[in-house]
């Protein structure tokens, strides 16, 4: 597992005080019940290419703020973001909230938690 710097972890922990998170089980229930939402994988393209949560779209952390308004113009849309371990997606959730998106959740464990629960991935 990648070791993160103290400064990065402090930033993420501070960010998590401002966002809402969701567990893999809660996300699976939303998907199974076809709840209206937009699931966004914020990992890099090479990570996306290894598999992603079904129904996801890909908008990497590096471009999401630039492209989100075109992809999801309604700021009330339920948006759930995820990355590999739950760190980058927390930062993205905070950023989207600052842009006026009011219904944003971050997958607290990232994709790894989804896999650990035994849920499947889709391939591109």
> Termini distance?
24 Å
Overall shape: it is: globular
Low-confidence region ranges: none
| Helical stretch tally | 6
Specify the CATH homologous superfamily.
Rhodanese-like domain
Helix/strand-derived class?
alpha/beta
Summarize the amount of helix as a percent range.
25-40%
Radius of gyration: 13 Å
CATH topological fold name? Oxidized Rhodanese, domain 1
Strand content: 5-15%
Mean pLDDT: 95
Write down the CATH class: Alpha Beta
Q: How many strands, which pairing sense, and closed or not: the largest β-sheet?
A: 5 strands, parallel
Organism: Legionella wadsworthii
GO molecular function, one term: thiosulfate-cyanide sulfurtransferase activity
InterPro entries: Rhodanese-like_dom, Rhodanese-like_dom_sf
Pfam families: Rhodanese (PF00581)
Task: Give an account of the 3D structure.
Residues 33-123 form the Rhodanese domain. The protein is of the alpha/beta class and 124 residues long. It has a single domain (20-116), classed as Oxidized Rhodanese, domain 1, CATH 3.40.250. 40% of the residues lie in helices and 14% in strands. It has a five-stranded parallel sheet with strand order 1-5-4-2-3. The longest helix has 11 residues, at 88-98. It is globular. The two termini are 24 Å apart.
Provide a brief overview of the structure.
This protein is of the alpha/beta class and 124 residues long. It has helices at 6-15, 24-32, 45-48, 64-71, 88-98, 110-116; strands spanning 20-22, 38-41, 57-58, 79-82, 104-107. The longest helix has 11 residues, at 88-98.
């Amino acid at each position: 597992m990648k070791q993160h710097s103290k400064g990065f972890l402090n930033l993420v922990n501070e960010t998590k005080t401002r966002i809402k998170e969701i567990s893999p089980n809660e996300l699976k229930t939303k998907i199974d019940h076809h709840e209206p939402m937009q699931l966004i994988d914020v990992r890099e393209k090479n990570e996306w290419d290894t598999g992603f949560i079904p129904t996801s779209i890909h908008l990497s952390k590096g471009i999401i703020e630039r492209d989100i308004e075109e992809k999801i113009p309604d700021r009330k849309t339920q948006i759930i973001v995820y990355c590999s371990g739950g760190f980058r997606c927390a930062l993205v959730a905070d950023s989207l909230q600052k842009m006026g998106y009011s219904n944003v959740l971050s997958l607290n464990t990232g994709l790894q938690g989804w896999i650990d629960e035994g849920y499947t991935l889709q391939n591109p």
